[in-house]
Amino acid sequence: MDSVYVxxxxxxxxxxxxxxxxxxxxxxxxxxxxxxxxxxxxSLIAAEKFAAEKEKENKTALRTLFIGGGTPxxxxxxxxxxxxxxxxxNFDFQPGPEATIEVNxxxxxxxxxxxxLEAGVSRVSIGVQSFSGTELDTLGRLHSSQDALNAVxxxxxxxxxxxxxxxxxxxxxxxxxxxxxxxxxxxxLALGVGHxxxxxxxxxxxxxxxxxxxxxxxxxxxxxxALRLYFLAEQMLGKAGFVHYEVSNYALSGHESLHNMxxxxxxxxxxxxxxxxxxxxxxxxxxxxxxxxxxxxxEKDILPVEEVCKLTAExxxxxxxxxxxxxxxxxxxxxxxxxxxxxxxxxxxxxxxEGFLEISKGxxxxxxxxxxLLDGIVLRLLAGLGL
Length: 387
Description:
The chain is of the alpha/beta class. The protein folds into two domains: 3-263, TIM Barrel (Alpha-Beta Barrel); 313-384, Orthogonal Bundle (Arc Repressor Mutant, subunit A), CATH 1.10.10. It has helices at residues 28-50, 77-90, 110-118, 133-139, 145-158, 178-190, 208-215, 223-239, 258-264, 291-299, 313-324, 333-340, 344-354, 374-384; strands at 3-8, 10-11, 24-25, 62-69, 93-103, 123-129, 165-171, 195-200, 242-246, 249-252, 269-272, 277-280, 283-287, 305-310, 331-332, 357-360, 363-366. Helix 1 packs parallel to helix 2 and helix 1 crosses helix 10. The longest helix has 23 residues, at 28-50. The protein is globular, with a radius of gyration of 21 Å. The model has no long low-confidence stretch (mean pLDDT 93).
């Protein structure tokens, strides 16, 4: 196992209008109870999964840690210290691990950034989303563009290196134009950070923004409009030296997210907290989405796992293709042929001819044109491979 993900399901006063993640407004008593349950889950997992390794010289040492939410930095300073103490107590990490935490600009002051650095966090992922006040309002974000600028500056002043500061952006926002998206990208590049994620806004069922679109109060951009925004980001970020290493992620060379790469490469990981997912020894499991039930079970020393499945051979094949083609490095043709028992180059021939896929050094990759259309391409490729 290489990685651990910890879910902190607390937001500020309200959830963003587009958010479908498991999260609730921050409350001190609720968060204290949750952190105690989370600590109990860690100790139970450590006892169950790693007890046999305690006497080994070469114990399992994790490479990456990612703390997401919600807004983990909605926690008070003392609560963050408690969280990191529980992590250190229960898990061993390799020297110099990649330890990332998500940060909302509205919660990012000098004290918290210094605390995070002292606790061993090496990388911060700041949820900027846009540098347009109008677009931030449309998304229901509680921070301003100035807050976002201040957060990056404060992280740098606290001691985080530019290469270890990542920012998230969103395109395809109702009302967004090529001009406003260009200005957001220019502002992002001016910050000098090492990693930028650019996600297309997707409408999730039962979110407020989905209701506003259905009612006609907001209009989502057409597919060709969204594609223009996608290619504008690719052009501008590429010109600035960023490598487009995954469909939605760009990094200066050598500063890719190791934690996320582990997901796309089907590495093993442990998920802790309500709604967290895990993948170990060919099994995927998920904790309960219900935060109250999560805490109730752990207070009875019961792990809060609700769904466990052993992947079938067909599911493993699908994941190999879908996850691997999301990355710049693509998938190994020889490994694919071993899995499928089929001629992968032949199955991909039409996509190569159409300019959506390419073959290089024994690997199959998505091209610049293929990346944004990958879902449909993968379905057609899998059909050609007999799935």
